[in-house]
Design goal:
25 strands; alpha/beta; binds 5'-O-[(L-methionyl)-sulphamoyl]adenosine; six-stranded antiparallel beta sheet
Length: 668
């Protein structure tokens, strides 16, 4: 059986898993299921990226050792994937002993091939991105993420990336399927064409990493000088170590069978590491290059990338609890064309659930099955012979055939949204067919001819329902399995190959199963309220101190006490409100223009329910002045107004001064 090896990125353990991470893993799990149904032997690797400055710092803040910290957060990821029913074949942690062996092995291969040299480097380093910000000057922010950079001088080992510029460009040219989608491919090509600089792949400024091995034939002993690997050199190798690279004969067998990867799924912000550094490392080590890298877009929340540093993450838990895993899978795959950014909101999630799952798919299943129960004693009825069927009957089966082809073509091309649209065309057509043919009226008349028409309508609808259910199984494994059982099927849906869809129509006179609603309709406002409430509980969970027994890393991530230097990073200033007005369509938001002495800032603040805009003009306020800008309802907010949060309903009360203070005064 041919293999299909696919990977997710290896997630940093400095944040608990959120919906952004879940998105990549859900897509990967869907593809794994789909490829298995196509008769391939799919193998999915996921895991965690645990070294580097980011993790070292988070652990320090949490008062834990990096290893202890990483152990707990890695476990959160593993558990989240399990709770979400995501099936993977290997979970690599970059702190696993076998990973260290693999990193050293690939490094030695690259060294032997002559692509490593020693040099010195001074530059701005961005800890958030874990990379040098070559374009930034001292004091300037990172051009990628806008975060602070620091000046670092290091004696490092370098990788001769510049030697790969032409080879990479030729490779992109000859393998147009290597970087997808096209926009990312063009970006990468332009980047490589603009020239590649050699890459420092070791660090002496931090301890939390894999030590470089002693280099045979080298005048200096890298390990003795306390060099550790640059975190990206380390992390990318996880795609190899997770399948046995570097192990002895039998341990390395999966690697030999599985490598090169068929598909590597990554978020668009890390395409450069995967499309430039990664193939160059592999070429240098004499290893084959993966077939396709697919860079997907970002899941946005309130129009900003969902991320821990932006403080706008949504946890998978509440959605899972209230709507179920399949609703989340469906929403993400349907709502966001794969490759583009997409908005996540509880409102849109519940609306789609009600319209597409409860009203369309769920309703089709319960209508068809209930009528078979009522009119045919729960047995799939015999349809009329083809010649006696109406154009309407025939149209449904023809459409079903056409939808099968369109769906598979779309999924083969990773166009989940398009594939789902095709299936919903079928579902809508069958719902309309039932309205047009009125089976309930046929049942009432009950003549011989009506009875056979009724049998044909219900058989045709049940057959279309079977096809839709089978097609949707990689997308919504749990709920389609339930509908499958209700259709009276005893074979396990997840083990039925895709080709059986056309080959095995519903058998007549088989008993259907017990009918139960799979997607009950939800009251929208109450459901959204509940989701918001649960999300708030997850975000503000009780924060006990670290005990001898250890606290969950999720808690540790939240409790981290900060040092005075961290507090001093927050720039608090006095401002005066010049303009205040309501934000259209947002009952809580005001748009303010605040004079902070040197400039006037536009700030969007959630205080409209406590303060009428006109009462704020001329009022002194305190603002956080050095926050990254973010958009709320499409309006850019440059800072945050400081307010006390009062009572159960968290009513905001603005900070005030008794004495007069000038605009722009700093708070310390
Ligand atoms: N550790 C590196 C990857 C190393 S791979 C050898 C890393 N980790 S990360 O945790 O910051 O992010 C990993 C991935 O999580 C992103 O590339 C993306 O696939 C996913 N996402 C995290 N936030 C996301 C969104 N808001 N939206 C969509 N996916 C995002 O980078």
């Amino acid at each position: 059986m041919a293999k299909f090896y696919l990977t997710t990125p290896l997630y940093y353990v400095n944040a608990a898993p959120h919906l952004g991470h879940a998105y990549s893993t859900i897509v990967a799990d869907t593809i794994r299921r789909y490829k298995n149904l196509q008769g391939l032997d799919a193998f999915l690797l996921t895991g965690t990226d645990e070294h580097g400055q980011k993790v070292e710092r988070s652990a320090k803040l949490a008062g834990m050792s990096p290893q202890e910290f990483a152990d707990q957060v890695a476990e959160l990821f593993r558990k989240e994937w399990q709770d979400l029913g995501l099936e993977f074949d290997s979970f690599i942690r970059t702190t696993d002993a076998k990973h260290e062996v693999a990193v050293k092995k690939i490094f030695e291969a690259v060294w032997k091939a002559g692509y490593i040299f020693k040099g010195s480097y001074t530059g701005q380093y961005c800890t958030a991105c874990e990379q040098y910000a070559n374009e930034a000057k001292p004091g300037e922010p990172c051009p990628e993420c806008g975060g602070p950079t620091e000046t670092i001088t290091e004696e490092n080992y370098f990788f001769k990336l510049s030697a790969f510029q032409d080879r990479l460009l030729n490779y992109y040219e000859e393998h147009p399927e290597f970087i997808r989608p096209e926009t990312r491919r063009n970006e990468v090509i332009a980047f490589v064409r603009s020239g590649l600089r050699d890459l420092s792949i070791s660090r002496t400024t931090l301890k939390w990493g894999i030590p470089l091995p002693s280099l045979p034939g080298s005048s200096s002993e890298a390990s003795q000088e306390k060099h550790v690997f640059y975190v990206w050199f380390d992390a990318l190798t996880g795609y190899l170590s997770g399948i046995g690279y570097g192990q002895d004969e039998s341990g390395e067998e999966p690697f030999r069978r599985l490598w090169p990867a068929d598909l590597q799924i990554v978020g668009k912000e890390i395409i450069r590491f995967h499309a430039v550094y990664w193939p160059a490392f592999l070429m240098a080590a004499g290893l084959p290059i993966p077939h396709t890298l697919f860079a997907h877009g970002w899941l946005l929340f309130e129009e900003d990338k969902m991320s821990k540093s932006r403080g706008n993450v949504v946890s998978p838990g509440p959605v899972r609890e209230v709507l179920g895993i399949d609703a989340l899978r469906y929403f993400l795959l349907r709502e966001i064309p794969f490759g583009q950014d997409g908005n996540f909101s509880f409102d849109a999630l519940v609306s789609r659930y009600n319209s597409d799952l409860a009203n369309d798919f769920g309703n089709l299943a319960s209508r068809v099955l209930t009528m078979i129960g009522r009119y045919f004693n729960s047995e799939i009825p015999y349809p009329s012979v083809m010649a006696q069927r109406s154009a309407q009957d025939r149209h449904i089966l023809e459409l079903a055939e056409n939808v099968i082809s369109r769906y598979t073509a779309a999924l083969d091309n990773y166009e989940f949204s398009g594939g789902l649209e095709a299936v919903w065309e079928l579902i809508a057509a069958v719902n309309k067919y039932l309205v047009d043919t009125e089976p309930w009226a046929l049942a009432e008349k009950n003549t011989g001819e009506d009875r056979s028409k009724l049998a044909t309508v219900l058989y045709t609808s049940a057959e279309a329902l079977r096809i839709a259910t089978q097609l949707l199984s990689p997308i919504m494994p749990e709920s389609t399995a339930r509908i499958w059982t209700q259709l009276g099927q005893t074979t396990e849906l997840s083990s039925l190959p895709l080709k059986s869809i056309k080959e095995s129509p519903l058998a007549t006179q088989e008993k259907i199963g017990k009918i139960e609603p799979v997607f009950p309709r939800l009251e929208k406002e109450a459901t959204v309220r509940k989701l918001v409430q649960l999300q708030q509980q997850v975000s503000g969970r009780g924060l006990p101190k670290k005990t001898a027994a250890g606290v969950g890393a999720e808690t540790a991530l939240a409790i981290a006490k900060i040092a005075i230097e961290d507090f001093l990073k927050v720039e608090l200033r006095v401002g005066e409100v010049r303009v205040a007005e309501r934000v259209k369509g947002a009952s809580k938001l005001l748009r303010l223009e605040v004079d902070i002495g040197t400039e006037t800032r536009q700030i969007v603040a959630g205080i409209a329910e406590s303060y009428a805009p006109e009462t704020l003009i001329g009022r002194k306020v305190v603002i956080v002045a050095n926050l990254q800008p973010r958009k709320l309802r499409g309006i850019e907010s440059n800072g945050m107004i400081v307010a006390a949060s009062v009572g159960k309903e968290d009513r905001p009360v603005l900070v005030t001064f008794i004495e007069d203070v000038p605009n722009g005064a700093k708070l310390r």
